[in-house]
Q: What sequence folds into this?
């Protein structure tokens, strides 16, 4: 299982490479040391929230894009939540009950 530090480092490296950005340039733009960025990308440092925000801003992404293993899943969940908030509360409850039922059906029972 990947640690959160490993996921963060991999996501930063992937996003940086997608933008054809060197480590040196990202470190400069994010106002962090190059050695710190290298440790973060290797999953060997635990960056502060301020450092993550600086990196996200420099990469023009959200912090979710850095924090999660699959940020697209997070975006889809956020869309569902936004849709549910448009419903009356009693309908939200019905949908939540349906989701719980579906999860119970799809979750294998341990013997």
A:
């Amino acid at each position: 299982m990947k640690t959160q530090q490993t996921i963060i480092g991999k996501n930063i490296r992937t996003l940086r490479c997608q933008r054809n950005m060197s480590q040196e340039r990202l470190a400069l733009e994010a106002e962090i040391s190059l050695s710190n960025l290298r440790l973060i990308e290797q999953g060997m440092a635990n960056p502060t929230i301020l450092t993550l925000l600086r990196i996200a801003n420099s990469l023009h992404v959200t912090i979710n894009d850095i924090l999660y293993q699959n940020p697209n899943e997070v975006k889809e969940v956020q869309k569902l939540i936004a849709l549910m908030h448009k419903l009356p509360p009693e309908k939200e409850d019905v949908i939540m009950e349906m989701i719980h039922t579906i999860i119970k059906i799809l979750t294998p029972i341990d013997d």
